[in-house]
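Quick start: read one record
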Amino acid sequence: QVQLVESGGGLVQAGRSLRLSCAASGSNFRINAMGWYRQAPGKQRELVATIISGGGTNYADSVKGRFAISWDIAKNTVYLQMNSLKPEDTAVYYCNVLFYISAAAREQYWGRGTQVTVSS
C-alpha cells in the first residue's frame, strides 16, 4: 500500500523559512513526478510546485523566486524549501506523487496534508 508521509509544517512569522518533506513508500513502480499543492480556507486546491523525473520543475507564479522544490530519488522523498514566507502562503500543503505504470497509465496519490501558518 502506497504511503506518503509529510512533515515540516508549522507556525512561522512572515519573512521566515520552512522546509516540507514528503517520503513515498509502498509501490514497486517508478515515480514519474512529485509535487506540492496547497489549499487555503475557502479556496480551491492549487499547484505550488512540481518536479519530474528528468529534473524539470514548475512553480506557481506566486511562489517563484521564494520556494524551491527538490527530489532525493534514492529516498523517494520530495522537499519544498519555502523562504520569505508571507501570510498569504498560509494553507494546508499536500504532497502529490505520480507513479509510472505503463506508457498509457499513471497512478496518482495524495498525502494527508501538513498545515503551514504564516503570521504577520
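DSSP finds no helices and eleven strands in the chain.
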